[in-house]
Design goal:
With 91 residues, the chain is mainly α. It has one domain. The longest helix is centred in the middle third of the chain and has 60 residues.
Length: 91
């Protein structure tokens, strides 16, 4: 009988440890999920800031109005060409 009581005691201890480890595992998985979401958000913010920085640098580099107009015309041409290609692909 003593052996069964001791075995039952050890089994209960193991079950409590297992339950505690499961809780810790769940908590750690939630923490990892939050960190992954935060990382994705930060990467998106970095991308946006880099794009903004390129825009600012481009604006600083092109101060002459004639250069800006020339670049606008080139961009409009590229956009029109892309639109034409997309329309061709959709047909």
């Amino acid at each position: 009988m003593q052996a069964l009581d001791e075995l039952n005691s050890k089994l209960n201890l193991l079950l409590r440890r297992y339950a505690a480890l499961e809780q810790e595992n769940k908590r750690l998985k939630e923490t990892v999920a939050k960190q992954i979401a935060t990382e994705a958000s930060l990467k998106q913010r970095i991308t946006t800031l880099e794009q903004d920085m390129v825009s600012v640098n481009l604006n600083d580099a092109v101060r002459d109005e004639s250069e800006k107009e020339n670049m606008r015309k080139q961009l409009d041409g590229l956009i029109a060409e892309i639109d034409g290609l997309l329309n061709t692909l959709n047909d």
